[in-house]
Amino acid sequence: MKRTGAQIIWEVLVREGVDVVFGYPGGAIMPAYDTILGYPIRHVLVRHEQGAAHMADGYARASGKVGVAIATSGPGATNLVTGIATAMLDSSPIVCITGQVPSKLLGTDAFQETDITGVTLPITKHNYLVTEVQDIAPAIREAFYIARSGRPGPVLVDITKDAQQASMDFEPPKGEVRLPGYRPSQQAIQTEIEKAIELIDEAERPLILAGQGIVRAEATRELLSFVEKAGIPVACTLLGLGGFPATHPLSLGMMGMHGEAWVNNAIQEADLLIALGMRFDDRVTGNLKTYAVKAKKIHVEIDRSEINKNVKVDVGLVGDVRDTLLSLIPGCKQRNRSEWIERISLLKGDSAVRDIQQLPYHDKLYAAHVLHDLWRLTDGKALVVTDVGQHQMWEAQYYKHDYPRKLITSGGLGTMGFALPAAIGARFAKADDEIWVVVGDGGFQMTACELSTCAQEGIKVHVAIINNGYLGMVRQWQEFFYNRRYSATPMRSPDFVKLAEAHGLTGIRVTKREEIAGAVERARATPGTVVVDFRVEQEDSVYPMVPAGADLNDMIRRPSPIVETGEDP
Amino acid sequence: MDRPILRTFIAYVEDRPGVLNRVASLFRRRAYNIESLSVGRTHIAGISRLTLVLEADEDGARRLEANLYKLVNTLWVRDVTHTASVARDLALIKVKANATTRAQVLQLCEVFRARTVDVAPEALTIEITGTGDKIEGLLDVLRPFGIIEMVRTGMIVMTRGAEEAEARFDSIPARSADSGAA
Ligand SMILES: Cc1cc2nc3c(=O)[nH]c(=O)nc-3n(C[C@H](O)[C@H](O)[C@H](O)COP(=O)(O)OP(=O)(O)OC[C@H]3O[C@@H](n4cnc5c(N)ncnc54)[C@H](O)[C@@H]3O)c2cc1C
Ligand SMILES: Cc1ncc(C[n+]2csc(CCOP(=O)(O)OP(=O)(O)O)c2C)c(N)n1
Ligand SMILES: [Mg+2]
User: Which fold has domain A355-542?
Assistant: First the structure.
């Protein structure tokens, strides 16, 4: 059958199982926009291409499938860049398709020409510049295969306008994609597995560090079996939250810069760390020289280049974490390690009284209240998409995630403005989930234009703005490390309730804790996207905090005077 | 503790537009300091071979290999640092030489088994092939005469004996028929 390049794009996408794409048109991609109307693919018109990339990312993280973003050449393509870099650092599978100037004009500084394959070289897993119609289908198929296999990541396919316009006899490609040098999957070596089992059986104070790899590998069940057999407590990275149920008795909570104090202390006391699909980010380890020096380390990783990158390990198991767990479980001994678990409870006891939940309630609305109550009111079952800043950390601490793929957040790049568009993308993956966006007053304004997308597309998400009148996380650093000089962090915002209303959406303002439940109730009952403006304490800080580069057990703790009066909320 | 040493790697990559750029970008991004990098075709169509010399410790070397493999166009990588091999670098050196000094320069070239490839009234152009040390040696003795210009290809390396490099390489699967993308 005769097909134009522009048609072939959609032919291939449909065969890859794509039913929604997020994009924005422009000159160089117009042929593709013209032909999409003939295919069963929903196009979501974003308000800024950054949003398209985040939506594809949110869709991918919620579904485990590849998300797709479309943009034109030049400014359209460069607007994707932040979203692509975000997906790269968190290993999220997305495919971006961009239009490019006609091939004859390449390299001439033509109108809206940007060398986007050059620009995105270091922030994509791979990318393609396609100038011939017959190369379109293979490039897009390879892009999907590369994006989702091995360690997932973003792939960009840049297609010149003349390649989209040319036609050819098109036979839908069949069979597996094969790339000669690409080896996405490997199996851990048996002798290494045996070494790991020996270390696990011998350890008296072992700890599991569960990362996003658990979520990606769909390995929650295998992790549970392993934990319950070997009797080893589990700490999660930010991106690993939900990979292991937070309410499980052996779950300790988050590790790292804003992790629970008892978790960081336990890491420093452990004699064995079993890292599962996590990459020892510097927000996780603090000072590498003093990090878990008493512990032997086992690292299970799909990406060989992560082994020994930040932390030297005793055993590196390269392979999918689910497969690897399945090899470890039968070999390791049944144990309960009650002494170690008691020791951790002791560490915990000291910290628990500092919990802000224990604060007596003095008419003040704390972000922690909002997130704790939201957790309760949604039975811990909502899909929460967070932005970047203090609210992101409070969410991680107070919303207990029991299920994988229920927390979506930008961890590695820490991209403000991520949450709202990512949640829109997630909505297309999870039609029935209750979705809550938890976002700061600063970050919300970076991509608030996507409220308009929600309105046009009839999308329902709940937006909880944790409004503290500051770029709070930066203000906190200024408070701790820059003598309280609040340079460029106080932020005046528009009336968010009116902003929602201007979009034809609903806005609710909450200033007291007793209003939270009512607002949540109302948001749920209202059709369409609802914005809830939570006016919280302005100068609260996230505790504990390991200053950047400090020893992991050297934490800034919540000042005690407020704390001693512990009492149930 | 193992210390960083100069290491030599051979890598086969697909001969496609931009591949060298990907390799170079990887080294820049991961902050590797390249001593020498040379690229050329192989006897197999569509496949190029890189020789790479850089400083790294044992862990760094393993990670470098792993990072190279992350490039989709990389076919095969080998660290030949500790393998018996032939290493060659080629330099063209233009050195000042007039009627009075020419004979002296030519004599030195002979000692180093370098060839004269161009003669001008005030200069000689010399070609020398060998290891880096040998080339440095010649440069040292030519410097007093005045070096006008120099260019080097960078190190190329081949392991000795009837090595398995190419044989192993045969086991690399072909691209699927429909995967002819740029
Ligand atoms: C303001 C702020 C504060 C932060 N504070 C903290 C903090 O206190 N604590 C914290 O933990 N993080 C924190 N982060 C996030 C941190 O920067 C990192 O993003 C996070 O720690 C990374 O988690 P990860 O290693 O699990 O996930 P990733 O970075 O996604 O790494 C996952 C690893 O698993 C591997 N993998 C993927 N799939 C598989 C598979 N199938 N099998 C095996 N392996 C696989 C990947 O190759 C990768 O190496 C913070 C971020 C921000 C913005
Ligand atoms: C795009 C981008 N710019 C700047 C930063 C640096 N930064 C990290 S947190 C933060 C403050 C966020 O403020 P807000 O969205 O109000 O959230 P809060 O910390 O107050 O909860 C800033 C500016 C960033 N992470 N991303
Ligand atoms: Mg704020």
Answer: Rossmann fold (3.40.50)
